[in-house]
Design brief:
endoplasmic reticulum, about 425 residues, PAP2/HPO_sf, membrane, 2 domains, globular
Length: about 425
């Protein structure tokens, strides 16, 4: 029988990740010696096993910050270090020698972050197709909940530093296997192509080729940023493809049930809370639980909006069955809908999260201005879940209703049912 343990061990070695980083221009600072450091507790070094030392970051990480903001912050730090060789910072222990690959892989990694979720799903819903968006969001919530829960159950750490240089502060405290970025990159693009091909006439091989390019781009970006080993990436990809195989035959049935069952909004809301309560308990706080709550809240909010739209007759049943030709949209109206919608989503996010945080902290006697208050499960769950449930609902219901009322709505004749 084939012994696969050595293969897993080899794929999980951090030196492969470090070699990949060096090849694409991420190098350790010359004045930092991260591999073997004399036995001294100076410069924020903490002794680990085998007399190895790890450098700890003094700066607190803002877990409520936007991923794009953190990317810009790290770019500024790296730029300052390249301009001033005398800079001594414990925050950034790397230097960038190729800014092309830096931006290329940062953008690829962003495709699996919150900034992409906030942009992709609304743009698709408002300008392309609501039916496909509903089914993709169902798969998205399923993949990410299973993936994040598996990660916290297995508790397999990220690649060791040193020799790996971690470029993203936000996810350092999460576990590594399986990579949920890889699960997203493998599951969602392929699901999007397959579901779209059921409704629209296009060359599926071109679609699958584009999905493969996105998958590879995102996966390699996580290696470049030092956040995952090759084992994490390969495991996450295979895991996602298995879940696609399991979930894909069921997604149409689930979608029809959500649309036709009148009490679906209540069921969705309660199911989201139940899944969050069932999320594995972790020994150390990380962003995994809050990210999962964001995904569940936005998905169930959006699905609840579809039930209401169907109940009041806003979802039109097409006269002819699929497949349909792809009709180029009015780009001017697409741009207008996107700008107005994103402004409304931003206002929703700011208002709801502020109200929920203040109310929740008031109930439990906590200071709402203290960032650590959001780490308590009793605050974190309603803070993220209610905020993003409201965002998902407004994306699917309020914004399309607004677009119809001012006459900038898209064609709904064959894109909703």
């Amino acid at each position: 029988m084939l012994n696969i343990h050595p293969i897993f061990t080899w794929l999980n070695e951090p030196e492969h990740v470090a070699r990949f980083q060096r090849y694409f221009g991420i190098l350790p600072l010359t004045d930092h010696k991260p591999d073997l450091i004399p036995k001294s507790d100076k410069n924020n070094l903490t002794k680990k096993n085998n007399d190895l030392y790890h450098r700890e970051h003094k700066t607190e990480v803002s877990y409520d910050a936007n991923v794009l903001d953190e990317c810009i912050e790290e770019i500024q730090h790296s730029t300052n270090q390249n301009e001033n060789k005398n800079t001594n910072s414990s925050e950034i222990d790397y230097r960038v020698t190729s800014w092309f690959w830096y931006y290329f892989f940062q953008l690829g990694s962003a495709l699996g972050n919150e900034i992409f979720y906030i942009l992709f799903f609304p743009i698709w819903i408002w300008n392309v197709d609501g039916c496909v968006a509903r089914k993709v969001s169902i798969c998205w919530a399923f993949f990410m909940f299973i993936g994040q829960a598996t990660k916290d159950i297995l508790e397999i750490p990220r690649p060791l530093t040193p020799p790996v240089l971690k470029l993203e502060k936000r996810y350092i405290e999460e576990y590594g296997f399986p990579s949920t970025h890889a699960m997203f990159a493998a599951g969602i693009p392929f699901t999007l192509v397959l579901l779209s091909h059921q409704r629209y006439d296009f060359n599926i091989w071109i679609g699958l080729g584009c999905a493969l390019c996105v998958c590879v781009w995102v996966c390699l970006s996580r290696i470049y940023l030092g956040m995952h080993s090759f084992l994490d990436i390969i495991g996450g990809t295979i895991y996602a493809l298995i879940l696609v195989f399991v979930m894909f035959p069921c997604v149409n049935t689930i979608d029809n049930f959500i649309l036709d069952f009148t009490l679906s909004p209540i069921l969705n809301f309660c199911l989201g809370i139940f899944l969050i309560k069932c999320y594995p308990s972790v020994k150390q706080w990380s962003t995994a639980r809050s990210d999962t709550t964001v995904i569940l809240g936005s998905t169930f909010g959006f699905l609840s909006s579809a039930t209401l739209l169907n109940a009041i007759g806003y979802l039109e049943k097409p006269i002819f069955p699929p497949t349909y030709p792809i009709i180029p949209p009015n780009l001017g109206l697409c741009f207008l809908r996107t700008i107005l919608g994103l402004v409304f989503v931003y206002i929703t996010r700011q208002v709801v999260k502020t109200v929920v945080l203040r109310c929740t902290c008031s109930v439990y006697g906590l200071d709402w201005k203290d960032p650590n208050s959001k780490r308590y499960a009793k605050v974190e769950m309603p803070y993220y879940y209610l905020t993003y449930f409201a965002i998902g609902f407004n994306i699917g219901f309020t914004c399309p209703f607004l677009f119809r009322s001012i006459g900038i709505n898209r064609d709904y004749s064959f894109t909703e049912l």
